[in-house]
Design brief:
By secondary structure, the protein is of the alpha/beta class. It contains twelve helices and eleven strands. Helix 9 runs parallel beside helix 11 and helix 10 crosses helix 11.
């Protein structure tokens, strides 16, 4: 049986059948509205209570449909399948599967509305008297403007759920494309920094995420923190290290802190970063500590430096001991390498690693 999501592109009305642009003055009643109920008993028909909404010169219907009916009456058009008329993105089936599993978990709730454009095959009718929207159960009754992964995920789920839906009618292809563009460019996504905070509030953090969160909070709130005043927990801000950048940096060395407490991680890294800041200050570049590439590169370098501190000082991770290793390193660097312009953190780290090792003497290490 043909999957409704993978159905061929929907048919579109000829220009003569399509109403003028949405911006044109709208009549008080349109062809899809009637004061008379359509004849009952047709198994090909579906109906649901709906509200007619007018926003300026735009009109659409809001209603709730069961997810199985939604999947059976919707189609999408991907640009690679239909390069002339298609404007949708290709379906990510892994993402859809995750939505299905989320729904079937019993805790899943996806309240955002699916945005549809009724196609001629729907033969959409709105009964003002009963407040019901009637349409044909055809796999190409509606074109999905926004929400294709949700619709596909709902279809993969074992259970049917009720889904909020917004239906536009009699849009031209140009208007459908513009609506798609507006939805996908004028909405601002939730900042990833804020999502990390929300994960804590929703008690859905993993153990590793909780460790990073607690270490960041210690750096942010402890009066002895070398990064005090330089962190931004819930948004990206110029001149600050965001929680996302901080987490990404520490994930690169997470094996160095197996079974360590947040306080232990904080104490060691705070001593290390203070030594780094002193090294940057030697070049008058201490303000560069907030540069994401430099910060990530210095965190990556931590394992190399900590190993030498462990061997030379028996694992006493003090700022002074870190400085004994880092002092010669920073003196070898040039100011324009802190950071090197247009260089990613991995390339910076490789340069720093080589600089740290250059001129290293076994005799110096053994008898220091």
């Amino acid at each position: 049986m043909e999957n409704p999501i993978d159905a061929p592109p929907s048919d579109h009305a000829e220009p003569s059948e399509v109403e003028p642009a949405l911006e044109a003055a709208l009549p008080s009643q349109r062809d899809d509205e009637t004061d008379f109920q359509r004849p009952p008993g047709d198994a090909r028909l579906a109906k649901a209570p709906a509200l007619l909404v007018t926003q300026g010169k735009h009109r659409f219907y809001t209603l709730v449909l069961p997810s199985d009916l939604l999947a059976a009456t919707c189609t999408v058009e991907a640009r690679l399948d239909n390069p002339i008329d298609g404007f949708q993105r290709l379906l990510d089936k892994k993402r859809a599967r995750e939505i299905a599993d989320y729904i079937d978990s019993g805790f899943g709730s996806v309240p955002s509305a699916i945005i549809l454009s009724a196609q001629p095959r729907a033969q959409l009718h709105f009964d003002r008297q009963s407040g019901e929207l009637t349409f044909h159960k055809d796999p190409r009754s509606f074109l999905i403007i926004d929400g294709q992964h949700r619709v596909y995920g709902f279809n993969l789920a074992a259970k049917s759920v009720k889904v909020p839906v917004v239906v536009y009618n009699r849009l031209t292809r140009a208007q459908e494309c513009q609506l798609f563009v507006d939805i996908n460019t004028k909405q601002r996504p939730v900042p990833p920094e804020l999502l990390l905070d929300i994960r804590r509030l929703s008690e859905s953090e993993t153990e590793a995420e909780a460790l990073l969160h607690n270490v960041f909070d210690l750096f942010s709130n402890d009066e002895k923190s070398v990064l005090a005043g330089l962190l931004s927990p819930s948004e990206r801000r110029k001149g600050k290290i965001s929680r996302v950048t901080f987490n990404a940096a520490l994930k690169s060395i997470d094996k160095a802190f197996v079974d360590a407490s947040p306080q232990d991680v904080y104490q060691v890294l705070n001593a290390y970063l203070r030594a780094c800041l002193n090294g940057l200050r030697y070049h008058g570049a201490e303000a560069n500590i907030v540069n994401p590439a430099l910060f990530k590169a210095l965190i990556l370098l931590f394992a190399n430096v900590a190993e030498r501190v462990s061997d030379r000082y028996g694992g006493r991770y003090t700022t002074q001991n870190f400085e004994d290793i880092l002092g010669p390193f920073f003196r070898k660097l040039k100011k324009n390498e802190l950071p090197k312009p247009a260089t990613g953190h991995l390339a910076l780290y490789e340069n720093y690693r080589k600089t740290l090792s250059s001129g290293f003497s076994l005799k110096q290490w053994l008898f220091a």
